[in-house]
Amino acid sequence: MWCHGQQGMASSDGKNLIVTFKAGTQPATKSLDPGVCAWVDRGLRPGEPTKIVDVRPTPGEARSTAGHINSGMDWTFWVYNAGSYLKATTSYKGKATHKPQIMD
To answer: Considering Cα of 66, then 72, then 78, then 84, what sign does the dihedral take?
Structure first.
């Protein structure tokens, strides 16, 4: 899922980065207005959550990432539907099409 940042879109609660967004109606590859997130290949369906929760390694990183998103930066999240929100498994600054490899 790609997101185009906007002031007030992201916040933090301890290690949790919380992104509340407007649902994109077309694929993110078309274009995204500020404050909008969409799937790379389609818009969101009715009823899909419009909140992402991403557990960051530290509270400072959660605050820093929220600041980047709020400054208008694009961000990519790999998520699954956890019911009332989308749970991030990984995230990446910018528009990524491939999940970054995690090195041990």
So the answer is: positive
**In angstroms, rounded to a whole number, what is the distance separating the alpha carbons of residues 19 and 52?**
5
Q: Which helix (H) or strand (E) holds 82?
A: none
Residue type, 20: T
pLDDT tens for the chain, residues 1 to 104: 999 999 999 999 999 999 999 999 999 988 899 999 999 999 999 999 999 999 999 999 999 999 999 999 999 999 999 999 999 999 999 887 766 665 44
What are the tokens at 4? 């185009």
Supply the pTM of this predicted model.
Answer: 0.91
Domain ranges of the chain: 2-93
Strand-by-strand arrangement of the 10-13 sheet: 10-13, 16-20, 51-55, 86-93, 74-81, 2-4, 36-38, 22-23
